Request: fold
Amino acid sequence: MAEEEKKEEVEVDCVQGEKKRETSPKLKQFLQVLKFTGFSLSAGAIQLLSFAILYDWTHWLPWWPAYLISLTLSVLWNFTFNRKFTFKSAANVPLAMGLVVIYYCMFTPISVFGGDAMTAAIGEELGIVTTVVMMLINFATEFIWDKFIVFNDKVIGKIESLFKRKKSETAVAIEEASNEHATTDDEVPTEETVATDTLLLK
Reply:
């Protein structure tokens, strides 16, 4: 009886372990979304505060430069903490930052000009509403970009291997060109070539 009970306990433990393995990817995704949301909220607070200082409280700048500066501050904050804590990526930091820059090269013109048009339509006194709308769009699209592109080790690895291959091909081409140049310079004139040059000169 004791042996049967032990076998049943082992089987139950195995089943529970399998269930935990099945749910762990979902739990991981949920935690990623939770962390990304938390850091995005803190970045949003930085963006709103800096925007309010530059646009609403001091009136130093028009809507779009104030938005651009506040967006840049929030991006730096968000990238740093999401890389380290949310996606725990040890990937090439300059390359990852470059991919973030590519995202914002696409998103920023749309949000700046679209937001400027929206502010003109609803009134400058509601500029903060436009900023919040752009932040929500930014939140959703940046999470997808970060998860599947910026902090995806497979994507980063493919890009790095592509750069390495191009670099090695360039190095080989330069070496071959330098070898050809050196071979041409090292050619010593023979008696036949000297005689031919002499006849041509006559």
About this structure: The chain has a mean pLDDT of 79. The chain has one domain: 2-151. The chain is about 90% helix and 0% strand.
